[in-house]
Amino acid sequence: MEIVGQLQKQFVDFSTSLYGEGFLDEQYLQLQKLQDESNPDFVCEVVSLFFDDSEKLLNNLATALQQQVVDFKQVDAHVHQFKGSSSSIGAQRVKNMCVAFRNFCEEKNLDGCLRCLQQLNHEYFLVKNKLETLFRLERQIVEAGGTVPVIVA
Amino acid sequence: MACTSGGKLEVSQQFPVGLRVLVVDDDVICLRVVEQMLRKCLYNVTSCSQATVALNLLRERKGSFDVVLSDVHMPDMDGFKLLELVGLEMGLPVIMMSADGRTNLVMRGVRHGACDYLIKPIRDEELKNIWQHVVRKKQNDMKEHDHSCSVEDHDRRKRVIDDTEYASSLNEGADADEVNKMQKKRRDSKDEDDETDNDDPSTSKKARVVWSVELHQQFVTAVNQLGIDKAVPKRILELMNVPGLTRENVASHLQKFRLYLKRLSMVVHQQVGLSSSYCGPVEQNLKLASLGRIEFQALAASGQLPPPTLAALHAELSRPTGNLILPGVDQRTLLHASLQGSKCVSVDRVAYAQPLEKCSPNISKQSSQPLTSNGDVHPEFAAWSSKNLGDLVPACNLGTVTETDGLLTFVQQQQKQSMMPETSRSINVNPSCLVVPSQSSPNHQAGNSPASVDQNCSFRNSAVDHNNPLISSGIGQVLEVECKAVSAPRDAASVSSTSSYSRNIQESSCQRVWNSASTLNAVVQPPTKAFVQCSYNGKLHLVQGSAGNPVYTGRGLSIPSRFAVNEQELQMCSLSQVRSYVESSSSKVKQEPNMDLMGSVKLGTPVKQLFSQNDLMSVFSD
Q: Quick check: B510 and B500 in contact, CB under 8 A?
């Protein structure tokens, strides 16, 4: 079926670009490997968890940085958490941003932190967008009767 | 992979399949990912998003897990603390995880006793090999015990290790015939040993001695007379002069006693700091000395022994030749005072889960606030310390010994160890138990419907609450209360009523001390619900039973029946021990709930994970 073929190609190209541009890393591939018949929606499930958690964290970060007296330890804790979760799903750019963010926290550099938060927000919504597109493509392929190609590193 | 050879040794063949892992991480994403990876390794996984819930789980179902994986940064408890507690109380290998891989953190992990430290994101290859830590730990424990343990025990444990080796070799595809031959030989030698055991009337297997309070008292008296260093079973036996008691009985009991003392001393060391392990107590001894008799009594009575005192007591305990300076304090009075203290205190005591450290500067602030415990000494401390004084005093030659509580403590501990899934954390206040998302429905069912661990915990707490005032009045009563609680668990009201208790789990290192205290006070409790869950992120996570049903992981229903069948025997032993102990304390304990659960487990596929704690502990049972 031509449509399926097209969709599949789209999917592969898109995935490759995501890896190439550093949005995703091999941890995401690991997630794919963990998905199986007994856990058919594993990746989707974990990614959704990530979205929920991240948005909460970003809100918390914003709040924390807006305090009169900023508690950098608390901010750092949030960022640490974010780093952990983003690395668990392979959201590489988000993770890297967290690393930078933590440095500013250690230095208690409020400006640096605020800038990082902005960038973090940006990176997060970018990767969220990309992943949603990816899932959409997968759905389309399946609906068109095809199978989703497996990307191997 | 599986090579059945007549049914008995199937378990070892599958190792490390079915390894029982507990994962603790507040990051739900990571938790889910690691959990899935572990599943892929064919391990039996339980996940928990809260450390305190995890700790409860571990305590309630001792012997249900082989290894613990824990995150370092958690909101309710520091991962390193959990690590230490688990190591101290359960002796399980703990592997730390963190997104932070800085050397100093990893160093801390190692210092606190972590078997390994994994850096997130965790790869599945890393998880595949975690079983090695289980084996290694068991081996090391064995070596430790070798010195004072009897030959039989050693052999029995060695067999466990050897079986594992078999398993690994089997997994690697050893020749079937060879394997069969080896297994037969092993079984034969096992049988031989068993036969010898049965024939010899003096082996511990035959004569099941119940170490009652009086008996233990005699034992401790004898030990103290001889001096802990010089106390050999033969001489102890002579001094005790108990007809029917054998040298072997005394030997194994002595071994346990030594371990108990050692544990206490470990706690002390941690409390006081390794470097100052000898200076600290000395200083504190002086402080202690400055306490007048009345003050001491009063403090004990009010359940507010100052931590330095406790630390000193611990230190003394670890140095049996030391002398505790308790000017004019009559042991009996002290005990009595503290007993009084514990009796008077109501359920309010539940809230006292205060770390030792916080207490020290705040003695003056101590008051019986029911819920928040800022600067309150856990009353358990008082009771416990007095119990330890009971043990301690003989060494210090302070008048007559009223060691009842010490005995209770010790004996209880033995019971607890050699038995079923553990129990009362005397006052284990677990805020998280109730903080855990309350999607859990208040229906508990022995095995089928989901209920959350927090209910389990809170119910457990409610059972536990009543323990403390009753400990002094005897184990029987406590058990009774617990049994009652067990038989009426579905009461949502009782669950909710405990919610008021669960406020404070403080995170300082004192928690360790307290917890070991409460460990020592632990009482036998019948196993609880037949299900296991931890909830996180609003989801109820079920441990998958073999049929995919949420079942009681602890006693092994959920483990595929490929595993060895000695569990039944084990449980039988444990159960009868409970019964005999309970009877000897002339209690009116309702055994039904106990029996039911045991019964159901017996009827089910009795299974035993190769490295169940119970297995090792059963080795100690008289």
A: no
Mean of all residue pLDDT scores within chain B:
56
What is residue B347's DSSP assignment?
G
CA B491, B493, B495: angle at the middle one, nearest 5?
80
What is the phi-psi region of residue B474: left when phi exceeds 0, alpha when psi lies from -120 to 50, beta otherwise? left
Inform me whether the C-beta atom of residue A34 falls under 8 Å from chain B C-beta atoms: yes
Adjacent-strand bridge partners of B95? B69, B116
Nearest to A30 among B28, B73, B124 (CB): B124
Chain B residue numbers with beta carbons less than 8 Å from the beta carbon of A46 are 29, 32-33
Q: How confident is the model at residue B142 (pLDDT cuts 50, 70, 90)?
A: confident
| Angstrom distance (rounded) from CA B460 to CA B501 | 12
Q: Which of these, B229, B228, B227, B247, lies nearest to B237 by C-alpha position?
A: B247
Long-range contacts from B265-270, C-beta under 8 angstroms, 24+ separation:
B265/B314, B265/B315, B265/B317, B265/B318, B265/B319, B266/B88, B267/B88, B267/B314, B267/B512, B267/B513, B267/B516, B268/B311, B268/B314, B268/B315, B268/B317, B268/B318, B269/B318, B270/B84, B270/B509, B270/B512, B270/B513
Nearest to A88 among B29, B40, B124 (CB): B29
Say if CB B117 and CB B103 are below 8 A apart. no
At residue B133, does pLDDT exceed 60?
yes
Return the residue of A nearest to B119 by Cα.
Answer: A84
Mutate to test the interface with B, among A51, A88, A127, A131 (most CBs of B within 10 A): A88
Question: How far from B368 is each of B309, B322, B515, CA to CA, in Å?
Answer: 20, 34, 20
Q: Which residues of B touch A (CB under 8 A)?
A: 26-30, 32-33, 36-37, 39-40, 71, 73, 98-100, 120-124, 537
Q: Give yes or no for a contact between B353 and B428, defined as CB atoms under 8 angstroms apart.
A: yes
Mean pLDDT on B155-159: 60
Two tokens, residue B88: 């101290």
Please give the model's pTM, rounded to 2 decimal places.
0.44
Looking at residue B153, what is its pLDDT?
56
Q: List the single residue in A33, A36, A49 with the smallest CB-CB distance to B32.
A: A49
Selected residue of A85, A101, A103 to mutate for chain B interface (largest B Cβ count, 10 A): A85
Q: Give how far Cα A108 sits from Cα of A58, A69, A118, B31, Å.
A: 18, 11, 17, 30
Element holding B70 (H helix, E strand): strand B67-71
pLDDT tens by residue, B457-467:
333 333 334 44
Is residue B494's pLDDT more than 80? no
pLDDT of residue A75: 94
Q: Structure tokens of B50?
A: 């809260």
Q: Which of A42, A53, A80 sits opposite B28 (nearest CB)?
A: A53
Tokens matching residue B38: 């572990």
CA nearest to A46 within chain B: B29
CB atoms within 10 A of CB A5: 12
Residue of B592, B576, B527 whose CA lies nearest to B553: B527
Q: How confident is the model at residue B333 (pLDDT cuts 50, 70, 90)?
A: very low
